[in-house]
Design goal:
Layout lengths: L10 H28 L4 H9 L4 H33 L7 E9 L15 H13 L5 E4 L2 E4 L4 E4 L4 H12 L3 E4 L18 H15 L5 E2 L8 H9 L4 E2 L8 E3 L2 E3 L7 E5 L4 E4 L2 H8 L4 E6 L7 H16 L3 E3 L1 H14 L13
Parallel strand pairs: 1-2, 1-12, 1-13, 2-5, 6-7, 7-9
Antiparallel strand pairs: 3-4, 8-9, 10-11
Helix pairs in contact: 1-3, 4-9, 8-9
Length: about 350
C-alpha cells in the first residue's frame, strides 16, 4: 500500500502510526473510565479523585465522549487503510508466474568471478531449461559491475560475448531489465552508486543504447531499497519495479511495484563458494500459495546437475498446471490493459521508505 507524502514516510505508514496512537489513547480512556467509575483508591489518583469527588459524573461523561470520539477516529483510519489498500492493490485473478534471472554483467574482465559461477557454462543451461518449456524470463542486467578486488567499475559494453548472448535471448522473447548500476552493496567503496539520479538515469540510457531497446523493468540489487533510489527509478521512466519489500503488488501512479520473489538459495556462502538450494518440492509449495508467483534465480549458483534437474522438474510441474508465465513487462501490460478495460485510471501515488 502506498501514498504520497514527502520524505520517506508513506501515507500508509502515517495511517498505521496514527492508528497505533489512537488505539493507545482508547486504552488509556477505558482505564480512566474504570478508575473514575469505581473510585479506585490509587495513590497516583487520590488527590485528583478527592478534589473532583463532586464532579465525578461530569468527568465520567467527558472521558466517555472522548472515548467515543477516539473510537470513531480509529474506525475512520482503519477504513482509510482499507480503502487505500483496495485502490492501489494489483488484482491478479489467475495464476501467473514471473521468472527473474539475476546478475548479468561483464564477466570477461572481472577478476576471480569465474570461480563463483559467472560463466556461460552455467548461464546457458539455465536459460536452455527455461526455453525448453516455452517459457521466457526477465534478465537482470547492469551496465557496470564493481570489481572489489580492483575497486573499479567494469563496463558491460566491453564484454561483447555477454552482449551477444543477451541480444540472442532478447530476440527469443526474454526481457532485459535493469538490476542496478553496478550491483555494488559495499558501503565503504560505493554506498551511493545505486541511489543517485545520474547513475540510475545514465545506467538505463547506456543499456538502451547497447541493446537498442527500451528498458521498462527494474529490480534492486540484493532487494535493498532507499527512498532516493526508488524515486530516481520512477523518475527515470521504469514501468515496473520488481522484487521489493512490499507484501504484495501495488500501483504507485502508473508504476507497479511487486513483492519479493522466492529465491531457492537458503545458504549463500560467497567466500566459501557454497550455494545451497532448497529441493524443488519446496518451490512448488511456495508457488501454490498465491496467484502471483515470482521465482528469483541466480544462474551462477546452478553448479550441479541436481540443481538443474530440480529446475527442470519444477518447470515441468508448472507447465502441467497451465499457468501463464510472463516477463515483468508482460505482466505490467496485462494488468494495465485490465485496468483500462474497466475504465479505471492508475491514480494512487506514493513512495517507499528505506
Amino acid at each position: 500500500m502506498v501514498g504520497l507524502l514527502p520524505g520517506s514516510l508513506t501515507l500508509s505508514d502515517l495511517y498505521y502510526i496514527l492508528v497505533g496512537y489512537v488505539f493507545a489513547l482508547i486504552i488509556i480512556s477505558i482505564i480512566l473510565l474504570y478508575i473514575v467509575k469505581k473510585k479506585l483508591d490509587i495513590k497516583f489518583w487520590k488527590k485528583i479523585l478527592n478534589f473532583s469527588k463532586k464532579k465525578n459524573k461530569e468527568i465520567f461523561k467527558i472521558i466517555l465522549v472522548i472515548l467515543l470520539i477516539l473510537i470513531i477516529l480509529y474506525s475512520g483510519i482503519r477504513f482509510a487503510i482499507y480503502s487505500l489498500d483496495q485502490s492501489t492493490s494489483v488484482k491478479v485473478d489467475k495464476k501467473i508466474m514471473i521468472i527473474e534471472l539475476d546478475d548479468y554483467w561483464n564477466i570477461e574482465d572481472v577478476e576471480n568471478y569465474e570461480r563463483y559461477g559467472y560463466t556461460f557454462d552455467q548461464f546457458i543451461p539455465v536459460t536452455d531449461t527455461i526455453s525448453k518449456y516455452g517459457f521466457r524470463a526477465t534478465l537482470g542486467v547492469t551496465p557496470y559491475i564493481f570489481d572489489e578486488s580492483t575497486k573499479e567499475n567494469i563496463p558491460l559494453i566491453e564484454d561483447q560475448q555477454m552482449i551477444d548472448y543477451l541480444k540472442k535471448l532478447s530476440d527469443e522473447g526474454y526481457e532485459l531489465g535493469m538490476h542496478g548500476y553496478n550491483h555494488c552493496r559495499n558501503q565503504y567503496h560505493c554506498p551511493k552508486y545505486e541511489e543517485v539520479w545520474f547513475n540510475v538515469y545514465n545506467g538505463k540510457r547506456e543499456l538502451e543504447n547497447i541493446f537498442n531497446i527500451q528498458f521498462n523493468s527494474y529490480f534492486p540489487p540484493g532487494n535493498y531499497w532507499t527512498t532516493e533510489q526508488y524515486e530516481n527509478v520512477k523518475r527515470a521512466g521504469f514501468k515496473i519495479i520488481g522484487n521489493t519489500h512490499v507484501p504484495k503488488a501495488y500501483f504507485d501512479s502508473d508504476v507497479i511495484i511487486t513483492q519479493k520473489g522466492y529465491d531457492p538459495i537458503y545458504h549463500y556462502g560467497w567466500h566459501a563458494i557454497d550455494f545451497r538450494h532448497t529441493p524443488y518440492e519446496e518451490w512448488i509449495d511456495e508457488y501454490e500459495k498465491d496467484n502471483l508467483f515470482i521465482l528469483q534465480l541466480h544462474p551462477n549458483t546452478f553448479d550441479t546437475l541436481e540443481k538443474l534437474d530440480d529446475l527442470d522438474k519444477f518447470l515441468a510441474y508448472v507447465k502441467n498446471d497451465d499457468v501463464q508465465v510472463m516477463t515483468y513487462k508482460e505482466f505490467y501490460d496485462y494488468i494495465s490493459q485490465k485496468k483500462k478495460d474497466k475504465g479505471v485510471q492508475l491514480s494512487a501515488k506514493g513512495n517507499i521508505k528505506q
